[in-house]
Amino acid sequence: MVSKNTKMKVLYLTYDGLTDPLGQSQVLPYIIGLVKKDFDFTIISFEKTTNFQKEELVINDIVKGNKIDWLPLKYTKRPLIFSTIYDIIKLKKAIKIEVEKNSVSLIHCRSYITALVGLWAKKKYEIPFIFDMRGFWADERIDGRIWDLNNFIHKKVYNYFKNKEKQFLQEAAYTISLTHAGKEEISSWGLKKQSSIQVIPCCTDENHFNISKNENKRSELGISSNDFVISYLGSIGTWYMLDEMLDFFKILSLKNSNSKLLFVTRDDADFIFKKCKEKGISTEAVIVKSSSRKDVPAYINSSDVSIFFIKPVYSKKASSPTKMGEIMNMGIPIVCNSGVGDVDIVMNKVMPELLVDNFNKNSYEQVADSLKEFVKNKDIDKIVKTSVDYFSLEKGIESYFQVYQSVLNLK
């Protein structure tokens, strides 16, 4: 533990909001854990208006209860590029005030936009920063078709961030990669004076996603004991391959007539039902349910198996699906595809027969044929243990703590 007499002030910068679902699952739990190790935190986040209006009071209670200072800034969405520049200016001003007010020991930068400011602060104030990269951000813009390299401006911005990426990796006191695959890719670039890299995946709060609670919502959802339920958790868009997942479900439902598809998502239900109709899937076999974070474990526990297909593109080498640990921690098997981050490593330890290698009928049928038997004989303890070994929030916090100790010479 850090001595109470040498309590270190950490500025944590995130371009995601604490009132976003991601902020509540992938920012606050880590910081709360590090506060318990006697670090003093100020979080500067960018909040989206709708989420902020809904969740501000909840987040305020959490941060105050854990003695965390929170400085929410308003996220600017438009116009593209210029809005981000404006937000960067706001962030620099906020940091200037914090540095003048407090003795800041470390700046923790979540992803690339905040790392731009972390790099600036290092040069201006000589404060070390951690580059918590969260994936290959610029390449995600290309792979996700947000930017087009045929567009002159997009190409300029892409090249700018790829150059900055190298600077972040060289100038940061430490780099955090979500995956071993991402770390290996970076190592292949041959950068000079590259900072040390620690792999910390998107971790799962074992207290929240806990199989021992054994709660489910099957009765509420109208699901009978004979139904075979495959669930999908989270948002649909950009990376998640809805068409292919529906193709898989259609094959599964032909083999098991009592199959149901449960979407636990805040996305538009009408869009999902429309897609199902286009695929010839009866909407009576499909359930769409919006859920608060509090109830997500019970909805996951209402399914026999879960599914996610993610585009296996270059940038996804560095991605860690948050939902993977959450689902496995509930002892639920997963049907998913290879070629994404460390997904193959995890799946091959516990359920390799549920890993889809190709998005075609033969591959879907092979997995569908083995699915019901696998679920019937599943080794719940092995699924949960594999999840805890890889996605444990407690282990993630300890890894961050070790990085902080190394950067601040506290060992």
Fold blueprint:
Blueprint lengths: L8 E6 L6 H6 L1 H8 L4 E8 L1 H17 L3 E6 L7 H20 L2 E7 L1 H14 L3 E4 L4 H7 L8 H20 L2 E4 L2 H8 L9 E3 L18 H4 L6 E6 L8 H14 L3 E6 L4 H10 L7 E4 L6 H5 L4 E4 L13 H7 L5 E4 L5 H8 L4 E2 L4 H16 L3 H12 L1 H15 L4
Helix pairs in contact: 2-17, 4-5, 5-7, 10-15, 13-16
Structure, described:
With 411 residues, this protein is an alpha/beta fold. The chain folds into two domains: 4-203 and 392-407, Glycogen Phosphorylase B (Rossmann fold, 3-Layer(aba) Sandwich); 211-391, 3-Layer(aba) Sandwich (Rossmann fold), CATH 3.40.50. It has helices at 21-26, 28-35, 49-65, 82-101, 112-125, 137-143, 152-171, 180-187, 218-221, 242-255, 269-278, 296-300, 322-328, 343-350, 361-376, 380-391, 393-407, and strands at residues 9-14, 40-47, 69-74, 104-110, 129-132, 174-177, 197-199, 228-233, 259-264, 286-289, 305-308, 334-337, 355-356. The strands form two sheets. The chain has a seven-stranded parallel β-sheet, sandwiched between helices. Strands 10-9-8-11-12-13 form a six-stranded parallel β-sheet, with helices on both faces. β12, α14 and β13 form a beta-alpha-beta unit. α4 (82-101) packs across α5 (112-125), α5 crosses α7 and α13 runs antiparallel to α16 (380-391). The mean pLDDT is 95.
